[in-house]
Description:
Elements: E1 4-9, H1 19-30, E2 35-43, E3 57-64, H2 70-84, E4 92-97, H3 98-101, H4 106-109, H5 117-127, E5 130-133, H6 141-153, E6 158-161, E7 170-173, H7 174-180, E8 184-187, E9 197-200, E10 207-209, E11 212-220, E12 223-226
Parallel strand pairs: 8-11
Antiparallel strand pairs: 1-3, 1-4, 2-3, 2-6, 4-5, 7-9, 10-11, 11-12
Amino acid sequence: MAEFIIAVDDTDTAEQGGTGRLCRGLAEALANCCEVRGVTRHQLAILPEIPYTRKNSANAIHLIRLQVRSDELLDYATEWVAEHCCPGSNPGLCQGTAEALTAVSLGRAAQRRVVTMQEARQAADAAGVVLRSVAGDGHGIIGALAAAALASSGNDGRFVEVGQVRALQGPVSIPQAQDAGIAEVREASGQPVTEGEIIATNGLRPALCEGKCVLFVIREGSHWIPVRGWPAAEQGEVQPQAGTHDI
């Protein structure tokens, strides 16, 4: 079953908005014409040369079972973002199949170094995916392409929306977490967790791991404490060393 990814970045300003919140709203709107697997957050590089509003992350929406043509989906998403983005922002949007996006290497590059708009457009053209500058100077196409490519890898970022995991509060059993949308619960070592209760204080933020929704947890007394995303710091969250230009 083909998976489509729509990714968005730079829809907010330093004073208002948030791309994660906007993407969750867009995902809800898209649920009328396709099945939404979830929304993932992907961390990009924190560098002085990169303009960003808060933490330089971008978001990707995972879609299957489209009930409209892909070009109609793209037009609808573009118009929705243009209507809901903050005035003065520079949103960009990327759409493509997960299969096509796996050919884009700029996702990992954007977690380590500055990527230009020209590089992003060239990489998208080569892979056969679409970039759209929605408003302003459209600088968000860089983060949008990076998030889409990282999401297609199945091994990056964390879910900010999947099933009912954001609604979970208090002690949650493993079966309850799975019923809410968690595919697997694992310790940081990768060992599966099948028993015990998870303390969810503000919902859960499972990782996109091996293409699945995986919640990593840490043992604390008689309970499990959830990890936001991956056990180790996500790529780009720690200041990269100067001169790092991996692709």
